[in-house]
Structure formats: structure tokens, C-alpha cells
User: Fold these one by one.
Assistant:
Number 1:
Amino acid sequence: MTYEQVKSLKPEDFKRLCGVRLETFKQMLEIVRSQKEKNKKHDDLGNSAWKTNC
């Protein structure tokens, strides 16, 4: 099943496929995105500081 097909599923079909409600999935996705953005900022700072010290 493609991403486009999953996006158009009814809520009960989405839960059957993924095991969580769509609302829960969206909350999980926001947490992952925010952590990814936080890590990206941290990595950018860490790499630039390391390069200037070498």
C-alpha cells in the first residue's frame, strides 16, 4: 500500500492497518519531527564548533 493510499483511508481502516488511531499517529509524528529538528540544530552547532577547534 502506498503512502497516498494510506492518507486516504477511513479512520477505522487506518487503525486496522497501523495499530493506532490517526490522531495518535499525528501526535507521534509531531514528536519525531520536533526531535529531529532539535537534533539537526544540535548537530549543526556541534559540527561547526568542532571544525573551528581543529
Number 2:
Amino acid sequence: MHMQEKVNVFWYRRDLRLHDNVGLFHALQEDEATLPVFIFDKYILDELPEDDARVSFIFSEIQKMRNELQEKYGSSIATYYGYPEEVFKEITQDFDVKAVFTNRDYEPYAYQRDANIKAYLAEKGIEFHDFKDQVIFEKNEVEKNEGGMYLVFTPYMKQWKKEFKKISADTFNSENRLHNTLQNSRLPNLSLGDMGFTKSSIEVPDYHLEDDFLENYEETRNIPSINGTSRLSTHLRFGTVGYREVVQKAASAKNETFLNELIWREFYKAILHHFPETQNRAFKPIYDDIKWRNDEAEFEKWKTGTTGYPIVDAGMRQLDKTGWMHNRIRMVVGSFLCKHLLIDWRWGEAYFAKKLLDYEMASNIGGWQWVAGTGVDAAPYFRVFNPYSQTDKFDKDKKYIKKWIPEYGTNTYQEPMVEHKMARERCLETYKAAVKKT
């Protein structure tokens, strides 16, 4: 296996594509050949069930890229299963590595992992180059004129759009340089079974971004019974789509609602970067004093979609069967858990982290803290979603509900586990008590 020619490593993470990939583009520009690698990280995988749909999806996307590289260029992607620092020891033993290229990730674990790898490589005299690829603006690139992070979305969004007008959206056509990948199609390869996983029955649907879809997005995006959303979220999460082209397309649409959703994603990433403690603490510390009820049996009913609130149950069953839930319904089920049942938002966040194909820590924490009223630019705590009026507004003919709850309308469907008016009053008292303490 040992090769004396110098190579540059491109380390794949959340950017599973050959085209428009910033870090890959920069690696391929170098004189040395590029060795692409992907590490199935034991720190992450050890927590997951054996039929985890995300692992299946990542695995099949990597196989697609391997096949294309093998057929066209006689090269491949080396895949490893282990702890990143140990895998890098193996890579640096087997190859003469000049530098490692990768795209930045903004979650607390990723920062720690990358710092460890960078330190290890530095000891060996190997350079580490990281690039911005999954966002247009990162860290401090959109901030107030006087400096500091925006804590409210709308001014952040306006500033983002101003900054966006100033930049030229470069294309990083990595796809045109793939002949500079290391010509070796026999690189380390794994099967799902080698890692103790089996193929999931859950498929990730393709995304769609037609012009008329973007045009009408504002009207269609809240109706859970139609295909009114782009289904882009999982592809953004794993980088199987070039982010810059998506943003360009959204920015050129007459209706800016879709672009604003992409900007929310960047807003939450910037918040998590500046306030990593919000991973497990309320952004507004007074709300860490809420006396949650945290009833395990009630949490179970919420998870299994047997609360007796049809719109909530439909959403939870959709999540269980497909690994995805409509965004409007995410707000409804989240509000129900925190406000109606007084269960800590962190319980809901952790459950979504297990189930959602498109799980992104920044957006998930942002969304959960938003419905709980504890977060940055959150819904005020006294705003309690009414599942019945949400149903009248967004699923009037109960199409969505009937799709996911076959027993709806029969006497086998469960009675509501808690009465709306009582739950709302109990919630307001509990929140008020927490706020009063300070």
C-alpha cells in the first residue's frame, strides 16, 4: 500500500459531491495528486441504530462518487471506519502526505475534532487547509455595523442580502480537475456490514427547485398534505448539492421566501458558532429556571404519535416512518411538547437528532429554542400554538392527518391526552413563575 509519491488528502465530511466543492477544488489545484478520503466516525456512529437511514444515505452517495471516479479517472475514495485521529495515523503511515484539505464545519464536536487533527498533522509537518463551503457567510461575516452578532433574524437577513450583493459568487468547478485525483482504484473500501450497519428501508427523496415552485413557495410551503417543500434539507445537510448554485437560484426568484429560509439556516449556524453553550442551555438564561414536568409516559405518547391531537400525531408518525417532518408541523409538535406537556425542549431536540435525516444541530437547536420561547429571536413564551386552529388553517380537509393516521375518525383513535385550555393555562403559569424569579 505504501506509496512514496507525495499526495494531498481531501477529507470529505458534509460535502458529498464531486462538483462545486471548495476544499476539493483547492486540493486539485496543487501539483501533487489528491487522495479523497471519508471517515465513518466511530464517535458518531456508535450512538446510532444499525439501520440508521443517514448512514445508508452517506454510504450510497460515497459509492456513487467512487464509481464515477473509478470509471472516468481510474481513481477512487478511500473509506475508513474508526476514530478520526487513529485513521489519520494510518493514512500518514500509508501515504506520503503533503497537506490535508477539507471544508469547515461549525458544530462544537467538529471544532474539537478538527483542532485535534490539525495538531497531530502539525507534529508531522503536514499542513491543514480548511475552507468555507456549506454557507455563503460564516462566523463574523454578517454582523452589526458597530460589530457583534445580530440576535434578531430580520436585521441579520437584511445585512446578509446587502453583503451578498457585494460578492461575486465564484464557481469552484472541482469537477473539471478530477483527473488530478490519485490514480489508484484499489483504495481501502468498506461495506455497511463491516461497520455493523444494515441498509435502511427509508429512502431520501430527490429535491426539486423549479422556477414556478420557488415563485409559489410562500403559498405552498405551509400545506403539509402537498409536496410544497423542496426536500432540499437532507441534501444540504450532507452536501450532496452545491450550495452556491442553490442560493443563486433562490436569489434570482421573484419571491424571496425560499432565500429567507436559507438565510435562517446561516443565521442559526452563526448563533451556534458564537454561543456554543446553547447546545444545552437556554439562550435566555431565565428560562433555565422553568419547572418542567418531564413525564416519561407522556413523552412516550408524543414520540409514538398517540397524543389524541391529530395534527401532532400525524407529524410524529411521518417522522417515524420517513425520517422527515414538514416544517410547519415541526413547530406544532415542538410547541405541543414544550407548552402543552411541559417537557424540556432538550428532550425533543435529542429525539429529533436521532430521527431526522436532515438533522443539523444549529437549525434544530434554533428551532426547538424558538418554539420553547427560550432562544434567540424566539416566539414569546405566551404564544402557545393551538393544534386545532393550526389544523383548520393548514390541513382543513384533514388530508395530511388521514394519510398518517388510518384510525382517525374511528373510536379506536385515542382521546386527547390533555385538555388544550387547561394545558395552556398551566404552561403560562409555569413560564411566568420562571420569569418572575429574576
